[in-house]
Write a structure and sequence with these properties.
By secondary structure, the protein is α+β, with helices and mostly antiparallel strands. It has helices spanning 6-18, 26-42, 55-61, 75-85, 100-112, 181-190, 197-216, 223-231, 235-251, 265-281, 286-307, 315-330, 335-349, 361-380, 396-410, 412-424; strands at residues 21-23, 48-54, 115-120, 127-134, 137-144, 150-155, 158-162, 257-259. It has a 6-stranded mixed sheet with strand order 3-2-4-5-6-7. Strands 1-8 form a two-stranded antiparallel sheet. Strand 4 and strand 5 (137-144) form a beta hairpin.
Length: 426
């Protein structure tokens, strides 16, 4: 793909839009960002708070620890820390600079300020409105479609901002429909490394740091260290363990930032750490590593375009299968092998549910990376699942399309049941 190709700069833009830093699980951070922005609009501390959230926000915030809160969980904690200590100019790092005093004030806020939570039924899977009140004054901020996409701001009874894309927030992003596995492979082969090096260098630096933290210390269920301690030090184990360990730390309150993919830190870790593990094992040169990361990152984004930011379909699966494609590219495989790797791996684990962000995400990541590696090794051994079998389509693009239909349409009722179970259980 030459630089004058109309797709070239669009592919670059997609990577720039997606590979951004975030601290903590992005759904609590989305709430904190909306709350911090609403506080900025109100201009003072509120005496009442209303939280309106889609089911997938409720699901993904319920059980995950919010960083910089001394171990708090849930929607109210996410909103409270955003109000008390958030800096909206930092977007997904909105609570990165919270002070010890602000942590204490957050608990006091939760103890004294009335806060309500309303589950809203809406078309968008990611939809949040935070309303703040102070005597007769009020302010509200709505985010919809993706985690930083503010579509409405109101102060008192006056609308001070409304996005022209409120009914389709994804229009704010570069059109992802231009992505294809063939195009991604072509782009990875020909991209000027200087155009992507800074992005990918940062992804490796941030995500390896939190992976190391997850392996070194006690976070969650310690899936990463469990894998290494019980299954050995083979590269296939390291690939799974390095990815899982980052999630171990991140899902359980680690305050280190990660570089996300498709709006998710877990997915950002999953597309990058297995590729790095294989690169270290086989002493792959830096340029080839970056080109492989282009494949894994864009393949994950390509899948998520039709799945959606949030759904009942576990995002680790698309990321783990994409990591398998990145590993295949790293090892010098061609387009056909990469395409078969994706189809094979998706046939293995598609259907794993997302029941919210929490410690078990690390185990799902390990299984997703395993399926990516199996899918690749199947193809290397000339053993592939057949086109037309089950959800595998005739050609990789039809397989990606089928997975998107399964996740966005077929699993919608599954999502409703998951949310119902999670919100009604004792």
């Amino acid at each position: 793909m030459i630089k004058t190709d109309s797709r070239y700069n669009l592919y670059i833009n997609i990577l720039k839009e997606e590979l951004v830093p975030a601290m903590g699980c992005t759904e609590p951070i989305c709430l904190a960002y909306a709350a911090a922005k609403a506080k900025e609009v109100l201009g003072e501390m509120p005496d009442k708070v209303d939280i309106l959230a889609s089911g997938n926000i409720i699901k993904n915030v319920k059980s995950v620890i919010v960083p910089n809160t001394n171990g708090m969980k849930g929607l109210k904690s996410s909103v409270a820390i955003g109000i008390v200590g958030g800096d909206p100019s930092k977007e997904l790092e909105v609570i990165a600079n919270v002070t010890p005093e602000q942590k204490q004030k957050t608990q006091e806020f939760l103890d004294t300020i009335p806060m309500t939570i309303t589950h809203i039924n809406c078309q968008e899977q990611l939809d949040v409105t935070i309303k703040l009140y102070k005597n007769e004054k009020s302010a509200s901020v709505r985010i919809s479609g993706f985690h930083t996409n503010i579509v409405h701001i109101q102060k008192d009874n006056e609308t001070i901002f409304e996005s022209s894309t409120i009914s389709k927030p994804s229009a704010e992003l570069t059109d992802r429909s231009i992505l294809s596995i063939e195009g991604i492979y072509d782009f990875a082969n020909s991209v000027d490394i200087e155009d992507v090096k800074e992005l990918l260098e940062r992804q490796l630096k941030y995500n390896k740091a939190i992976s190391d933290e997850g392996l070194k210390n006690d976070w969650g269920a310690n899936i990463g260290s469990l894998l290494l301690n019980n299954y050995g030090n083979d590269v296939k184990i390291k690939a799974k363990a390095w990815a899982a360990a980052g999630s171990d730390a991140r899902m359980n309150g680690c305050e280190m930032p990660v570089i996300i993919n498709s709006g998710s830190g877990n997915q950002g870790i999953t597309v990058s750490m297995p590729v790095l593990a294989y690169a270290k094992e086989y002493n792959i040169n830096e340029e080839q590593i970056y080109r492989a990361l282009v494949v894994s990152n864009l393949t994950a984004i390509h899948q998520k375009t039709s799945i959606g930011r949030l759904s009942a379909y576990c995002g680790a699966i698309s990321a783990g299968c994409a990591a398998g494609c990145g590993i295949a590219y790293l090892m010098g495989e061609n387009l056909e092998t990469i395409s078969k790797t994706l189809a094979n791996s998706l046939a293995i684990t598609s259907g794993v549910i997302c029941d919210g962000a929490k410690a078990s995400c690390a185990a799902k990541i390990a299984m997703a990376v395993e399926s990516g590696i199996i899918g690749y090794n199947m193809c290397k051994n000339h053993k592939n699942f057949c086109d037309g079998d089950g959800i595998i389509g005739y050609g990789v693009e039809n397989t990606v399309k089928n997975i998107g239909t399964l996740a966005s349409k077929g699993m919608r009722e599954t999502d409703n049941v998951i949310i119902k179970v999670m919100t009604e259980q004792n």
